[in-house]
Amino acid sequence: MKAKWIAGIVLTALAFSACDDNTDDVGASLTNRLDKFQIVTDTFAVSTRSLLVDSVITHSKYTYLGRIKDPETGAYVTSSYSTQFMHLEETTTVTFPSKDQILSVEDGEVIADSCHLNIYINSFVGDSLAPMKLKVYELNTPVPEGKTYYSDYDPEEEGIIRTDGICKEKSYTKTNFLVSDSLRQTSNYMSYINITLNEPYTDKEGKTYKNYGTYILRSFYEHPERFKNSYSFTHDVCPGFYFKTTGGLGLMSEVYTTELVLYIRYSKNGNSINSAKVFTSTEEVIQTNNIINDKERMKQLATDNTCTYIKTPAGIFTEVTIPVDDIKKGHEADSISSAQISFYCYNDVSEDELQLNDAKYLLMIPRDDINSFFENKSLPNYTTSFITTLNTSTNSYTFQNITNLISHMNDCRNQSENWNKVVLVPVEATLSNTTNSTDFRKVSNLMSLTSSKLIGGSANPHAPVTINVIYNQFK
Question: Which residue in 14, 80, 109, 132 could disulfide with 244, CB within 3.0 to 4.6 Å?
């Protein structure tokens, strides 16, 4: 006990001797470190201009079909598309029954009762009653894999249309009057364009079938290995189709999916079964868009320096020059805690005009990174790329904090003539299945018809576009 008591005295003495008699910092260590800083704010003018875009990389989950007149430019925008069809191995929706079960037979061979293509319309711009025309072409070979496709890809120019294959014309309106009013008014109804393929069909080997569906059906029984997966189905059976807008004006349709449907009859447990076997276009197969804009009219619009534009599809972006030198001048030793910038839209389209929607999502990305971002299917990293949504109450796009971008630009200055330039790109964005509203699963160029006229430009008659910066400065 005595030894423990003496040891306690020694330890206590050592503890006091280790203390410093100087109490100048007492209290300072207990206060918030922010007390050592002062907040400084400043605002800088930002220069913007319209940037004409010839074509963009297409990774959209939708395709587009139609022709419409742009109310701002008076120019015509025409869209066509090509698609392949998905076929998963042993997928129940497209697996046929055994050959001896098929009830429809001609000359001792099984046949499909009918076959057609369905183009399902997700949304549209324009007049639902506008009469339109399209022509559907059978592809001779699939659209090649492993390539990046832009919005100006044309299967005809690439020479992949089968010259002696299916070529059918179709007149249509978005509102299909062949469907009853009661069905069209149901919540789950989706408008569609129906194209029949019931004429005799001759394959590349010169063999003729009752219709295109019969060709698919017999191919399955004669060469089941060609239906192993989507790749073999596309390369050995059905390369796909090209849907080209050939006439009409006033409707641009966003295509949700395209279906190739075969109707067959077969026997099961002594009963006659009518069945539809469906091959569907999806994001997993190659789909391309062919967008034709009036480039001269778009060029005229882009030279208007009293504003800037962001127009899709494949039209105009807005280029922004960030005043990095001005922001850093006199603040070399300070840290930037916030840098916010907003872009406001005009509202000057009269009510009697067709008014195009504003893009919901806007991507800010360095000028030199546009192609690589979409080629690599990148996502916003909030260091060099940022995404924001349209604020409908203020009709503006606000990037809350691009501090990391300014630091990146400052570190990489003079590596390119565009070192301090970013571009505002309208995008289609898919959120991940999380509660985080900024967690994106996919970002791609927006291919639907949208337009925003932004305050800005070198001859801007309004208040300038500005960036608001907050610095943390040592006292």
Answer: 80
Alpha helices in 75-229 (DSSP H): 155-158, 181-184, 212-222
The span from the CA of 180 to the CA of 127, in Å, is 19
Interval 153-207: pLDDT, tens = 999 999 999 999 999 999 999 998 778 777 777 878 899 999 999 999 999 999 9
Return the residue matching tokens 């070979």: 141
Kindly state the percentage of the chain with pLDDT values over 70.
88
pLDDT digits (tens, 9 = 90+) for 55-91: 999 988 899 999 999 887 788 999 999 999 998 765 5
Nearest to 200 by CA among 216, 211, 214, 189: 211
398 vs 388: CA distance, rounded Å: 7
Which residues neighbour 205 within 8 Å (Cβ) at sequence distance 6 or greater? none
Amino acid at 140: N
pLDDT tens-digit readout, 192-225: 999 999 999 999 999 999 999 999 999 999 999 9
State the alpha helices, DSSP H only, in 130-173.
155-158
Q: Identify the pLDDT of residue 403.
A: 96
Integer Cα distance of 324 and 336 in angstroms: 12
Element (H, E) at 381: none
| C-alpha torsion 87→93→99→104, nearest 10 | -120
Short-list 124, 241, 243, 244, CA closest to 173? 124
Q: What is the DSSP letter of 154?
A: -
The yes-or-no verdict on residue 277 having pLDDT over 80 is: yes
Bond prior to 426 in cis (omega within 30° of 0): no
HSE (side-chain half, CA atoms, 13 Å) at 66: 31
The Cα 197–Cα 201 span in angstroms is: 9
Rounded CA separation 385/362 (Å): 11
pLDDT in tens, 412-466: 998 999 999 999 999 999 887 765 556 889 999 999 989 999 999 999 999 999 9
Half-sphere exposure of 55 (CA within 13 A, CB side): 16
Indicate the pairing of strand 450-454 with strand 308-312. antiparallel
